[in-house]
Model the fold of this input.
Amino acid sequence: MSDDIKKRDITSLIEKEAPNLHNLLEPEDVSAFKEMTGELRDTWTKKQMFRTQTEMEFSVLNDAKYPTNASKYWQCVREQNVFLENLMTLSFDYRKNDVHIKRLEKKIAEETDELKIELAKIDLDQKNYGKAGMQLVARDRMREIKLWSAYKNKYNDGTFDTKDVNTHQLDSYHLTMKNKAETLTQGSSQPEVFNVLGQLQSIERIKQDNEQIEATKKPILPGLTSKG
Done:
Protein backbone atom coordinates (compact mmCIF):
# COMPACT_ATOMS: atom_id res chain seq x y z
CA MET A 1 0.00 0.00 0.00
CA SER A 2 1.45 3.39 -1.02
CA ASP A 3 1.95 6.19 1.50
CA ASP A 4 -0.80 8.23 -0.22
CA ILE A 5 -3.31 5.39 0.16
CA LYS A 6 -2.24 4.81 3.76
CA LYS A 7 -3.13 8.42 4.52
CA ARG A 8 -6.74 7.66 3.66
CA ASP A 9 -6.86 4.15 5.11
CA ILE A 10 -9.21 4.25 8.09
CA THR A 11 -9.13 0.50 8.78
CA SER A 12 -7.10 0.94 11.95
CA LEU A 13 -9.38 3.77 13.10
CA ILE A 14 -12.48 1.62 12.57
CA GLU A 15 -10.91 -1.36 14.34
CA LYS A 16 -9.82 0.82 17.24
CA GLU A 17 -13.29 2.28 17.69
CA ALA A 18 -15.18 -0.99 17.22
CA PRO A 19 -14.96 -2.12 20.88
CA ASN A 20 -16.43 1.19 22.00
CA LEU A 21 -19.52 0.56 19.88
CA HIS A 22 -20.69 -1.79 22.65
CA ASN A 23 -21.88 1.45 24.29
CA LEU A 24 -24.24 2.03 21.36
CA LEU A 25 -25.01 -1.29 19.70
CA GLU A 26 -26.16 -4.77 20.59
CA PRO A 27 -23.36 -7.40 20.77
CA GLU A 28 -24.42 -9.07 17.52
CA ASP A 29 -24.33 -5.72 15.72
CA VAL A 30 -20.84 -5.03 17.04
CA SER A 31 -19.74 -8.41 15.71
CA ALA A 32 -21.31 -7.65 12.33
CA PHE A 33 -19.57 -4.28 12.27
CA LYS A 34 -16.19 -5.91 12.94
CA GLU A 35 -16.76 -8.43 10.14
CA MET A 36 -17.60 -5.60 7.74
CA THR A 37 -14.49 -3.53 8.53
CA GLY A 38 -12.91 -4.16 5.12
CA GLU A 39 -16.14 -3.42 3.27
CA LEU A 40 -16.77 -0.25 5.28
CA ARG A 41 -13.25 0.98 4.60
CA ASP A 42 -13.88 0.41 0.89
CA THR A 43 -17.23 2.24 1.09
CA TRP A 44 -15.69 5.16 2.94
CA THR A 45 -12.86 5.43 0.42
CA LYS A 46 -14.90 5.25 -2.80
CA LYS A 47 -18.07 7.09 -1.76
CA GLN A 48 -19.06 9.91 -4.07
CA MET A 49 -18.17 13.28 -2.62
CA PHE A 50 -18.52 15.75 -5.44
CA ARG A 51 -19.78 15.60 -9.01
CA THR A 52 -18.78 12.80 -11.32
CA GLN A 53 -17.47 13.52 -14.80
CA THR A 54 -20.86 12.57 -16.22
CA GLU A 55 -22.63 15.05 -13.91
CA MET A 56 -20.16 17.77 -14.84
CA GLU A 57 -20.93 17.26 -18.53
CA PHE A 58 -24.72 16.96 -18.58
CA SER A 59 -25.72 18.78 -15.41
CA VAL A 60 -23.30 21.71 -15.28
CA LEU A 61 -22.17 22.18 -18.88
CA ASN A 62 -25.51 21.39 -20.50
CA ASP A 63 -26.03 22.78 -23.99
CA ALA A 64 -29.23 24.65 -23.20
CA LYS A 65 -27.71 26.74 -20.43
CA TYR A 66 -24.23 27.04 -21.94
CA PRO A 67 -24.80 26.85 -25.71
CA THR A 68 -21.38 28.02 -26.88
CA ASN A 69 -17.83 26.81 -26.30
CA ALA A 70 -17.05 30.19 -24.80
CA SER A 71 -19.85 29.96 -22.23
CA LYS A 72 -18.78 26.41 -21.33
CA TYR A 73 -15.14 27.50 -20.99
CA TRP A 74 -15.96 30.38 -18.65
CA GLN A 75 -18.23 28.19 -16.52
CA CYS A 76 -15.29 25.79 -16.19
CA VAL A 77 -13.22 28.72 -14.95
CA ARG A 78 -15.83 29.52 -12.29
CA GLU A 79 -16.16 25.91 -11.17
CA GLN A 80 -12.42 25.32 -11.03
CA ASN A 81 -11.88 28.48 -8.98
CA VAL A 82 -14.48 27.37 -6.40
CA PHE A 83 -12.64 24.10 -5.91
CA LEU A 84 -9.29 25.87 -5.74
CA GLU A 85 -10.52 28.18 -2.97
CA ASN A 86 -12.10 25.28 -1.08
CA LEU A 87 -8.90 23.25 -1.37
CA MET A 88 -6.82 26.13 0.01
CA THR A 89 -9.22 26.58 2.94
CA LEU A 90 -9.10 22.86 3.60
CA SER A 91 -5.29 22.99 3.62
CA PHE A 92 -5.37 25.63 6.37
CA ASP A 93 -7.87 23.56 8.37
CA TYR A 94 -5.66 20.50 7.94
CA ARG A 95 -2.65 22.35 9.32
CA LYS A 96 -4.66 23.53 12.32
CA ASN A 97 -5.89 19.99 12.89
CA ASP A 98 -2.29 18.74 12.93
CA VAL A 99 -1.43 21.30 15.61
CA HIS A 100 -4.39 20.10 17.69
CA ILE A 101 -3.12 16.54 17.33
CA LYS A 102 0.34 17.53 18.56
CA ARG A 103 -1.16 19.40 21.52
CA LEU A 104 -3.28 16.38 22.46
CA GLU A 105 -0.29 14.04 22.18
CA LYS A 106 1.69 16.35 24.42
CA LYS A 107 -1.19 16.57 26.90
CA ILE A 108 -1.51 12.78 27.07
CA ALA A 109 2.23 12.43 27.72
CA GLU A 110 2.29 15.05 30.48
CA GLU A 111 -1.16 14.71 32.09
CA THR A 112 -1.50 12.78 35.37
CA ASP A 113 -5.28 12.86 35.77
CA GLU A 114 -6.61 9.60 34.29
CA LEU A 115 -9.96 11.05 33.24
CA LYS A 116 -8.32 13.98 31.48
CA ILE A 117 -6.01 11.53 29.71
CA GLU A 118 -9.00 9.45 28.63
CA LEU A 119 -10.79 12.50 27.25
CA ALA A 120 -7.63 13.63 25.45
CA LYS A 121 -7.29 10.19 23.83
CA ILE A 122 -10.89 10.36 22.59
CA ASP A 123 -10.24 13.83 21.17
CA LEU A 124 -7.07 12.52 19.54
CA ASP A 125 -8.93 9.63 17.88
CA GLN A 126 -11.54 12.07 16.62
CA LYS A 127 -8.90 14.43 15.23
CA ASN A 128 -7.14 11.55 13.45
CA TYR A 129 -10.43 10.44 11.92
CA GLY A 130 -11.09 14.03 10.85
CA LYS A 131 -7.59 14.17 9.34
CA ALA A 132 -8.28 11.11 7.20
CA GLY A 133 -11.55 12.69 6.07
CA MET A 134 -9.77 15.90 5.05
CA GLN A 135 -7.29 13.90 2.99
CA LEU A 136 -10.16 12.18 1.22
CA VAL A 137 -11.91 15.48 0.50
CA ALA A 138 -8.66 17.02 -0.75
CA ARG A 139 -8.13 14.14 -3.18
CA ASP A 140 -11.61 14.57 -4.65
CA ARG A 141 -11.36 18.35 -4.85
CA MET A 142 -8.11 17.94 -6.77
CA ARG A 143 -9.83 15.43 -9.06
CA GLU A 144 -12.41 18.08 -10.02
CA ILE A 145 -9.75 20.76 -10.43
CA LYS A 146 -7.96 18.54 -12.96
CA LEU A 147 -11.19 17.68 -14.77
CA TRP A 148 -12.19 21.33 -15.08
CA SER A 149 -8.75 22.00 -16.52
CA ALA A 150 -9.30 19.28 -19.11
CA TYR A 151 -12.69 20.74 -20.04
CA LYS A 152 -11.19 24.22 -20.37
CA ASN A 153 -8.72 22.83 -22.88
CA LYS A 154 -11.49 20.94 -24.66
CA TYR A 155 -13.69 24.00 -25.20
CA ASN A 156 -10.91 26.52 -25.84
CA ASP A 157 -11.03 26.24 -29.64
CA GLY A 158 -9.34 29.58 -30.27
CA THR A 159 -12.48 31.36 -31.46
CA PHE A 160 -13.16 33.49 -28.36
CA ASP A 161 -11.51 35.71 -25.80
CA THR A 162 -10.11 33.75 -22.82
CA LYS A 163 -9.00 36.88 -20.96
CA ASP A 164 -12.23 38.86 -20.60
CA VAL A 165 -15.41 36.97 -19.67
CA ASN A 166 -17.62 39.85 -20.86
CA THR A 167 -16.59 39.48 -24.49
CA HIS A 168 -18.63 36.37 -25.23
CA GLN A 169 -21.62 36.98 -23.01
CA LEU A 170 -24.01 38.79 -25.34
CA ASP A 171 -23.87 36.02 -27.93
CA SER A 172 -23.97 33.22 -25.35
CA TYR A 173 -26.81 34.76 -23.34
CA HIS A 174 -28.71 35.45 -26.56
CA LEU A 175 -28.66 31.75 -27.46
CA THR A 176 -29.49 30.77 -23.89
CA MET A 177 -32.55 33.02 -23.75
CA LYS A 178 -33.68 31.84 -27.20
CA ASN A 179 -33.51 28.28 -25.88
CA LYS A 180 -35.60 29.30 -22.86
CA ALA A 181 -38.10 31.15 -25.04
CA GLU A 182 -38.62 28.02 -27.14
CA THR A 183 -39.65 26.09 -24.02
CA LEU A 184 -42.42 28.55 -23.14
CA THR A 185 -45.96 27.25 -23.56
CA GLN A 186 -49.47 28.47 -22.88
CA GLY A 187 -49.08 26.90 -19.46
CA SER A 188 -46.03 28.99 -18.59
CA SER A 189 -46.61 31.48 -15.80
CA GLN A 190 -46.84 35.17 -16.58
CA PRO A 191 -43.74 36.05 -14.48
CA GLU A 192 -41.74 33.34 -16.30
CA VAL A 193 -42.82 34.60 -19.73
CA PHE A 194 -42.21 38.22 -18.73
CA ASN A 195 -38.73 37.38 -17.41
CA VAL A 196 -37.60 35.28 -20.39
CA LEU A 197 -38.98 37.52 -23.13
CA GLY A 198 -37.84 40.63 -21.30
CA GLN A 199 -34.26 39.40 -21.09
CA LEU A 200 -34.33 38.20 -24.70
CA GLN A 201 -35.58 41.56 -25.97
CA SER A 202 -32.99 43.40 -23.85
CA ILE A 203 -30.14 41.29 -25.23
CA GLU A 204 -31.30 41.84 -28.83
CA ARG A 205 -31.58 45.60 -28.20
CA ILE A 206 -28.09 45.74 -26.68
CA LYS A 207 -26.64 43.80 -29.61
CA GLN A 208 -28.35 46.15 -32.06
CA ASP A 209 -27.09 49.21 -30.18
CA ASN A 210 -23.56 47.81 -30.19
CA GLU A 211 -23.74 47.13 -33.92
CA GLN A 212 -24.84 50.72 -34.56
CA ILE A 213 -22.00 52.06 -32.42
CA GLU A 214 -19.50 49.93 -34.31
CA ALA A 215 -20.94 51.07 -37.63
CA THR A 216 -20.26 54.73 -36.80
CA LYS A 217 -16.60 53.88 -36.22
CA LYS A 218 -16.11 52.40 -39.70
CA PRO A 219 -15.31 54.65 -42.71
CA ILE A 220 -18.01 54.68 -45.42
CA LEU A 221 -15.40 54.81 -48.20
CA PRO A 222 -11.65 54.52 -48.08
CA GLY A 223 -10.28 57.74 -46.68
CA LEU A 224 -13.70 59.01 -45.61
CA THR A 225 -15.59 58.94 -42.32
CA SER A 226 -19.33 59.26 -41.69
CA LYS A 227 -18.76 63.01 -41.46
CA GLY A 228 -16.83 63.13 -44.72
